[in-house]
């Protein structure tokens, strides 16, 4: 069976950046299971998965525009330390939930601390990154009506 919309796909993957640094991998663990065609994985990889079958092995390079988007400079802001009331010790790398200007919840990470100025980044950690995938399709099956209705694999 070839992968099409509303297929349940099981795959092993290794994700690297353009320099070859491994970012994530399912190697040594369970394969990733997802429902094709409903946005469960990044758009560029979903497109590359179409028409593949169990046993297929391939590589795919996904540009930021078809993954987590480019870096948005508006999502990098410097705030006063007082904006983090209730947190005793701030450190670079700490993550917080915040609200976007549209009122949507977003994750932000502290990327710099300079005295009383704290710089945060609300971009996804992989925004602006060219993604290099090594894929092995393990299994493909038709989704059940319940999986299609719920938009994810059961």
Automatic annotation (TrEMBL):
| Assigned EC number | 5.2.1.8
Alphabetical UniProt keywords: Chaperone, Cytoplasm, Isomerase, Rotamase
Family annotation (InterPro entries): PPIase_dom_sf (IPR046357), PPIase_FKBP_dom (IPR001179)
Any Pfam family hit = FKBP_C
Does the record bear Transit peptide in its keywords?
no
Q: What class of enzyme is it?
A: isomerase
Q: Which residues form the PPIase FKBP-type domain?
A: 6-83
What is the annotated localization of this protein? Answer: Cytoplasm
For this UniProt entry, the molecular function terms from Gene Ontology, in alphabetical order, are: isomerase activity
Q: Which reaction does it catalyse?
A: [protein]-peptidylproline (omega=180) = [protein]-peptidylproline (omega=0)
Major site of localization recorded for this protein: cytoplasm
**According to its UniProt record, which protein family does this protein belong to?**
Belongs to the FKBP-type PPIase family.
Function text: Also involved in hydrogenase metallocenter assembly, probably by participating in the nickel insertion step. This function in hydrogenase biosynthesis requires chaperone activity and the presence of the metal-binding domain, but not PPIase activity.
Record protein name field? Peptidyl-prolyl cis-trans isomerase
